[in-house]
Write a structure and sequence with these properties.
44% of the residues lie in helices and 5% in strands. It has 6 helices and 2 strands, in the order H-H-H-E-H-E-H-H. Keywords: Iron, Metal-binding, Oxidoreductase.
Length: 133
Amino acid sequence: MVITKEAAVPSSISSESDYNRVEELKAFDETKAGVKGLVDSGLANIPKMFMIPANELKQNSDSNPTRFHIPLIDLQGDRKKVVDEIKVASEKWGFFQVVNHWVPLSVLDEMIKGVIRFNEHDDEVRKQFYSRD
């Protein structure tokens, strides 16, 4: 994929056969700007490092790709079942929604506001906290 501003993620990729995901991820990490840095740079398309190769996508796809849902994890369920659901959702989707977590709405609202405030800081401030951990 293409990034409109080359400086966003330095790339030495000259052709499809030369593509090296590890190198692209390393260059992305070295910017310490994260996905917001890509967006702020004028990103036109999703970078290839975030895309699943077509051959893997076909292996992992359901029979009807237009019907999908974000996995919903109910923490009030049986512990083993909840753990299994989290494992499957994490492996297949990489994210999920949690219900019955008992976290007050006011705490969730403040968390979202905090994330917004953090992302409004200059790149140099955010870079201090960037990590792959």
